[in-house]
Amino acid sequence: IIIFFSALQLNFLWLFGYSPSTQDIKMPTLRVGSELYTSDGKLIGRYFKENRTPVNFNEIAPSVINALVATEDVRFYKHWGVDAQAVGRAVIGLGEKGGASTITQQLAKNLYRTRYNKSQGFLAKVPVIRTVIFKLKEWMTAVKLESNYSKNDIITMYLNTVSFGNNAYGIKTASRVYFDKDAKDLGITDAAMLVGMLKGTTMYNPTKNPERALERRNVVLRQMNKYNYLSNDSL
After folding, report:
1. Nearest-5° angle of CA 46, CA 173, CA 44?
2. What residue ranges in the chain does DSSP mark as E strands?
3. pLDDT range class, residue 105, cuts 50, 70, 90
4. Range 20-56 burial, b when 16+ CB lie within 10 A, else e
């Protein structure tokens, strides 16, 4: 087992494809937009490939964090990057809402693109073992992230990384695009709508599919209530 995981990490003979190094983990890269201001501080233009402006943890409304954890990874603050309980349930076929993939694993996949062609390697071209290799890479990268960053750092990186559709990358840009608010000013229903979109940015896009977006928002609100992030009186 040790030899196998070492070979996976070191990409022995390019059998397994790229895995993020310790340096990659400590210095992640993220595409951000450039902003042009006048001398008196007015924003007059933005230039970008991905319309993204990162934020810090304290610039995100608590309702966004609560909605994300309740919907995507309810044991986020208890696991070490891989949720063994969720994996076990998935293996024996029980499954659970939100699946076995943790927020940290999703960050690993989004930030380091562990499922793209340049990451695959020779063995990953074999359909039978491709999913196993992808999942093992995500687990290993998730553990590295948990070893180097706090939970607040990880959830902030995740919310800065994900796409919300309409060329809105990251929670700050999404807050502006959909609600014309700062991320710290999002209300509970705003947060539930944005988190709900993460399941499908087209299917649950409030500008393209408002009815589906509303249904998905309500699912998120119920999850928040189920895990005590939201009282019955708030529903």
Report:
1. 25
2. 34-37, 43-47
3. very high
4. beeeebeeeeeebbeeeeeeeeeeeeeeeeebbbbbe
Confidence of residue 154 (pLDDT cuts 50, 70, 90): very high
Q: What element of type H or E holds 72?
A: helix 62-72
Q: CA 43: distance to chain centroid? A: 28
Query: What is residue 227's DSSP assignment?
Result: T
Burial tier of 91 (Cβ tally within 10 Å: 0-12, 13-18, 19+): exposed
- Give the per-residue pLDDT at 121: 55
DSSP-assigned beta bridge partners for residue 52: 169
In three-state secondary structure terms, 235 is: coil
The confidence score (pLDDT) of residue 52 equals: 85
For residues 61 and 183, the answer to whether their CB atoms sit within 8 Å is: yes
d(CA 54, CA 160): 5
Nearest to 222 by CA among 233, 235, 211: 235
| Amino acid 97: pLDDT | 47
Average pLDDT over residues 220-226: 96
Nearest to 67 by CA among 174, 202, 209: 174
Give me the mean pLDDT over the 53-59 stretch: 94
Longest CA–CA separation in the chain, Å = 62
Q: Residue 169: beta bridge partners?
A: 52, 163
Residues 6 or more apart whose Cβ sits within 8 Å of residue 138: 101, 105, 108, 109, 114
Helix axes 210-226, 62-72, angle to 10 degrees: 90
pTM recorded for the entire structure = 0.80
